[in-house]
């Protein structure tokens, strides 16, 4: 049986999901405005998170997690707290004067710190459980050969890495960053508000 159509469908759905604005999008763009290295590290962290969720879904663990209400809630509350924390930290950064903000790497997160932030933002989003669980169930036929599942993991990794690295490259562009410095306070205020709002919504959603 030819699984080309199913794999292409999965790639398309995955790309649409990545493009949709959310915590991953905000995490990558925020770090990219600091510098390209931090943005790319965050992007790779997010892509790794997608791979972890996809792997769990392949082994059926995503369905199990979605049934364990208490574990789902633990992930949800931790994710909500982390997003709110990032939002508050963004608000606190508003106290700095624009002249004190440098785009040099010594004032940004290290590669590992940025990677960890991207990974945590993705892994603490419980909606990933439902997304990847339903994606594999609806797109990949039951009893598909092992190589198909291996191919899906590769596709998920490549699509996520390519999209978020492209996003990081775009937002770390010199013109974009110089514009950001001019509009830093309103932009950061909006960014912090969105993060807090996403965290609050995640905490109260069921």
Automatic annotation (TrEMBL):
Keywords: Cell membrane, Membrane, Transmembrane, Transmembrane helix. Its main location: membrane. It comes from the Bacteria. InterPro entries: LeuE-type. Pfam families: LysE. It is a multi-pass membrane protein. The keyword Ubl conjugation does not apply. This is LysE family transporter. It comes from Hohaiivirga grylli. The lineage of its organism: Bacteria, Pseudomonadati, Pseudomonadota, Alphaproteobacteria, Hyphomicrobiales.
């Amino acid at each position: 049986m030819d699984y080309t159509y199913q794999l292409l469908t999965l790639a398309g759905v995955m790309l649409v999901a990545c493009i949709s604005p959310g915590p991953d999008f905000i995490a990558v763009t925020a770090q990219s405005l600091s510098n390209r290295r931090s943005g790319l590290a965050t992007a790779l962290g997010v892509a790794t998170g997608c791979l972890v969720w996809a792997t769990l879904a392949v082994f059926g663990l995503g369905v199990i997690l979605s049934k364990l209400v208490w574990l789902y809630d633990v992930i949800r509350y931790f994710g909500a707290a982390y997003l709110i924390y990032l939002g508050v930290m963004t608000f606190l950064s508003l106290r700095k004067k624009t002249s004190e903000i440098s785009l040099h790497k010594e004032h940004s997160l290290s590669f590992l710190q940025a990677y960890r932030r991207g990974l945590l933002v993705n892994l603490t989003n419980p909606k990933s459980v439902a997304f990847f669980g339903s994606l594999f169930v609806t797109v990949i036929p039951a009893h598909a050969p092992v190589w198909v599942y291996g191919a899906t993991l590769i596709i998920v990794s490549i699509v996520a890495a390519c999209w978020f690295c492209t996003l990081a490259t775009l937002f770390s562009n010199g013109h974009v960053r110089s514009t950001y410095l001019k509009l830093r306070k309103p932009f950061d205020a909006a960014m912090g508000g969105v993060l807090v709002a996403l965290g609050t919504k995640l905490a109260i959603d069921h």
